[in-house]
Specification:
The protein is mainly alpha-helical. The protein has one domain. 68% of the residues lie in helices and 0% in strands.
């Protein structure tokens, strides 16, 4: 399904509405990674409402924080700035910044999709 979504976003063959319909009944739609994909594709499919793209970004960031290694038996959380400095979170921030730069400099959404994927 991801490849179909990328293809549709990049202007190749594909039907984003069909991909979204296929994702909706999935049990994992509440999980950050799956929800991120769903909201990102929904934002592209509608090409208007910003809520979906904001949710996609937030769910991807949430997923990055969830991948931060935790100490076994830790009774408290580390400070947020320490988690934010972790490579997995910084990598997500860099990737999202790159995508934003591509989208800001490219009026053609299909071309932007191809650049994001490369």
């Amino acid at each position: 399904m991801l490849s179909e979504g990328w293809a549709a976003w990049s202007g190749q063959t594909g039907d984003l509405a069909a991909v979204l319909r296929a994702l909706e009944p999935r049990e994992g739609l509440d999980e950050d990674e799956v929800a991120c994909v769903y909201y990102a594709l929904d934002g592209v499919a509608r090409a208007g409402p910003r809520d979906a793209t904001i949710w996609a970004s937030q769910r991807a960031i949430d997923a990055a924080y969830a991948r931060v290694p935790r100490s076994e038996g830790a009774a408290t959380f580390r400070p947020l700035d320490e988690d934010t400095a972790m490579p997995v979170v910084q990598s997500e921030f860099r990737w999202q910044d790159r995508v934003l730069q591509i989208l800001e400099t490219n009026a053609d959404l299909a071309e932007a999709g191809q650049q994001v994927r490369s």
